[in-house]
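Two folds, back to back.
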Amino acid sequence: MLKHIVDSENPIDDGKIRRKMQVVNVAAFIASLGFGFTAFYQFQLGPDWRYLAWVNFGLGFAALLTMTLDRFGLEVKVAYFTVWLFLFLAHDISVGKNGEDHLVLLVGPPLLFYFLGAAYWRWITLITILSAALFIYISLVVPLHIPPGETIWDIIAQSYQDGFVRQPQDVIFIVLILGIVSALFFTSYSANAAIDRYEDALEKEFAVSERLINVLLPSRIAKRIKAHPDRLIAERIDDATILFSDLSGFSEFAAANGARATVKLLGSVFSAFDELVLSYKLEKIKTIGDSYMVAGGLDPSVKERQPDSVRMAALAIDMIATVERVTDNLHPKVSLRVGIHKGPVIAGVIGGDKPFFDVWGDTVNIASRMESTGEPGRVQISPEVRDEVAEYVDCERREVINIKGNGEIQPYWLLKVHDKPATSHSSERLIKG
């Protein structure tokens, strides 16, 4: 029944629900403390006060139970606390309205907007109407003190017998109360509707910023930046694997086919690369024009059956196959050239408003040279990579090349990658050289 009364077209997110539940819990705890101290004091006054003491103790315990209703949801918690409030008022006015506690009926319902939000205006409207009617009735019928020997029910019965005859000023009082209730209701509704809109806008902006930072940076780096945004992030990795790739023939294709076809090609190729990198649990570093850079071994928490260099070799073969598939019917012909090297690197985040995660060092330079001195449709790996992946791959030695600053290097063409080491060829990736 409650779900039919409550307007849940704009459900409250989990964060808001937790905050609002905490507010209700605080209110319930304060109420239980108040009733508990009152009951304790009344127990000390003697037997004549025992009944009221037990009633107040029961009301305090009932308020405390509100804090145990989290698993039933915010609506049930607030509904229970509202019912408890009405029971408290019913008990309080049983001895007269001198305590003026029935004033809660005026300010209480609008406070529901702060607990539930403006989306629940239908339910809050119903509670507000009932509360206003009850406040007016109590104000006009219930005396300040119930005379000795009478009960509240005697007073109510007498009012029925008198036919609710009222003075003209009572009409003015009713109009005044309705005006106050209406003002409180619409003010609270407007304020909380604005708060909900602002919170929704902030949450959308936060979601966009979260997505962007996780796209621009590895998740582990993004977490460190969010935890300590002013702290320098720099680390040395002693054994990283770096891959560089470049689209051979891309400049000719761009000149012949125009902007739309060029951007579409890059989008298709790099999107496929992104999925492959994730599947191999490696890290995309950056793209520069038609170049694509990947790193492995940067995250010590990644524990895979195969070393990162083997996964990088398998990635390289899949990348070449992807480009062949995507560009099969394109003209001029576009193919991928790949180079891989491994060794120590420096990794870190640079930039303020636009943070950028990058890696530097001689290892990066050699990996870039492995790519630039390679051939379209082939993967060239350094001897360091070949030594580590030897059990998993088939390689072909090529002529020695000279790299500036590093002298002569004996590179290899990567031909085939096996899922298992040594002689097991049950599943393999192949490049046709």
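---
second:
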Amino acid sequence: MRAAGHHAVDLVVQRLCTVADGPPHAAAAPAALQPLLGEPLPEEGGDLTGLLDQLTQDVLPLGIRFDHPRCFAFVPTTGNYPAVLADLLSTAHLSVPGAWLVGSGPSAVELTALNWLKQLLGLPDHWGGLFVSGGSLANLTALAAARDHQLGGDLTGARLYCSTQAHPSVARAAHLLGLGRDQLVALEPDPDQRLDPRNLTAQLDADLAAGLRPFAVVATVGTTGTGAVDPVTDLARLCRRHGLWLHVDGAHGAAFALSGRGHDMREALGRADSLTFDPHKWLFQPYETGCVLVRDPELLKATFRMARHHLDTGYLHPAEARHGEVNFDDLGPQQSRGLRALKVWLSLKTFGAAAFRRAVDHGLHLSDHAAARINAHPGLELTSKPSLGILTFRCRPGGGSTDPATVDRLQRSVSDAVRATGQALVLTTRLRGRTVLRMCTINPATTTADIDTALDLAHRAVLAADPRL
């Protein structure tokens, strides 16, 4: 056990110290992986140390290296070494912060980590919540509480509102909560890709006049496409006027509140009824570290408490909270749940909050640098200004073509060409119906030189592109 464990730590350290070596993306076709992993069930055991080598050499590197300094795809994450050790320890101890009886120590760690997150985001002490797997489950958990509190058991005529720029997990949550697709009203955004309170007001007035039942609005702080921030304060005022629940999906962008630039966001976040926050994004945690926070934690308990859903109360009765303990399985959909909070707790204890604030500021600086380079480059065009470490741009065709289909094909060709170099990863998205290139610059290991390299690669790809593009 010690020999394999020491070897595993060596492999982890080697991985973390060589992140920038090699390409930011590697893939293999299913046919190539079949001989390696498509084996029959083994009846006899093998050498654990050798198996660790096989995984780290042949399997785990196949994918996006989200911590590579020139990986600008999706929303990169870096993880950190204390968080790796936190997962190791919590797994070894079979830590379950579900019922207090089952894991009082783990539950206390989660309570502390939640309090620290509230301090980082500027939320009042009375807010509460729990750690979940990520933004998708956080959105589902919050909207389930909103549905029950606002509608009871009657979904007739219910309407949930968001912008078309909201994350797909909002639509999936609506589906899982029993809402038909027509009951999710996705409004076109304003020119800055934000949910427009005026359009929302008009839609609410029309729906109320038609006898429908609006119950909640989802505002996004940091859309995945452009990093747009919906006007949370105005939306909160509108929701209060109509008695609606305001959920803020801040999976990426809520971390902006850590920075000096984002201090004003704290007040806006505090106006929500619930908030999604993903530490596995801009708080640099490994995946499976999401969080949902609500203004009134009792509303989570009203939806999820175990006693509400008991079929045979005898088995779980000994684990019920009786003396002020917190049972996290009363606050969300999971009963058996891992100690995700330990990653956050150990990271903050090891590095201190100031290190994370500096890292967020660094990501903002990088996106500003990228925008300045793009604006100064004759072959590049900024299509959305930097917002929360995200920006989009377009490459101009070498022949000067303005045909929309040609220009769109060029952006996809440039993305493919940059990826093929093995030096950077820049993918595309859609903005106002057009294909554009997108960069997310939040990796604290990324430098301005990495930004310059990626943009230079994009420009070279244009020069080498087929003129017919």
